[in-house]
Amino acid sequence: MDFNLSREHQLIRKMMAEFTEKEVKPIAAETDRTCEYPRENIEKLFDLGVMGMCVPKEYGGAGADPLASAICIEELSKQCASTGDIVATHNGLCCDPIMTYGTPEQKAKYLPMLTTGHHVGAFALTEPNAGSDASKGQTEAKLEGDHYVMNGSKIFITNGYVADVFVVFAMTDKSRGTKGISAFIVESSFPGFSVGKHEEKLGLHGSPTAEIVFQDCIVPKENLLGVEGKGFSIAMATLDGGRIGIAAQSLGIAEGALAEAISYTKGRVQFGKPISKFQNTQFTLADMELGCEAGRLLTYQAAVAKGEGKRYTKLAAMAKLFTSEHAMKTTTKVVQLFGGYGYTKDY
Fold it and tell me: For residue 175, what pLDDT band results from cuts at 50, 70 and 90?
């Protein structure tokens, strides 16, 4: 058992750390303050091959593995969790199901769009009355000749008002419950597609989240993803991979906060010495580092299992649960370490 990253993964981490420091960090606070989508940096990430990086080379991707994608999301999220979220959604929730379930024709059309074509992807499952209980979705798609007519709406869709390609889930037979859900590839240019409310969130302000509305939306029959009635299983399997992305994002948030805390406490002098020298501060920092290390192992373990084709549902769930809780604990503790300054936007 080797816990060391390969040379390739080390180089990817180095590349992303440098990109994050040079391109992401300088605008992160402004992105959060203005709720601006970091368009220029996303375009640069396309140029770097990070957007859609796990897509095979024949379709314009880098042919990278899930661990490489997780490392990229982790590094970006150390300075801007919004940017990490955009990448995680594009790679894990849009590219991945098309790679896994798409026909040769669908892959040939859409994967190049999502890599070299600089088209942003999204995933549309959640509805007002169908959150965790996805089987309660009301969006319908009825087959009429050579196309489906889709009606309904989705909420809380990450990348919602910037995405060009969506993996959408809709009922094709309501009488069959979860077995009546099907998956579709929907373009924002399709007739009847529109963007509704832009969500004003408490965080992740640079990550564009919106309602998506389908009003007699025309979806070509050939855009059915997988088999009709198998959409629920596609959604659940895709969300397994998505949890690795969220775990990597949460890990990056915690690591970034810890790095800031170490830097600040070394420079903040009280009672004649840096507060980093006080045992209570050291205990707090040690707990943060412990959680980051454990979260990193859980996240990387899940990513490697996915890349090796092993079952990783439980591993991804454990990684997401642990790292997301640790990110909350860490950021809360860091605010306390910063004292009164922690409650100001200057820091």
Answer: confident
C-alpha span between 94 and 275 (Å, rounded): 46
Check: CATH 3.30.2270.10 for 121-228? no
Output the pTM of the full model.
0.95
Q: Are the C-beta atoms of residues 119 and 165 closer than 8 Å to each other?
A: yes
273 membership: H or E segment, kind and range: strand 273-274
Helix, strand, or coil (residue 99): helix
What kind and span of H or E run contains 44? helix 39-48
Its CATH class, for the domain covering 233-343, is: mainly alpha
CATH top-level class for 7-113?
mainly alpha
In order of 79, 140, 243, 246, 298, the CA distances from 322 in angstroms are 20, 36, 11, 11, 8
Range with the lowest mean pLDDT among 15-19, 107-111, 303-307, 340-344? 340-344
Task: Spell out where 103-221 has E strands.
Answer: 121-124, 140-144, 147-158, 165-171, 181-187, 193-198, 209-220
Report the pLDDT value the prediction gives residue 131, as an integer from 0 to 100. Answer: 81
| CA–CA distance, 15 with 256 (Å, rounded to integer) | 17
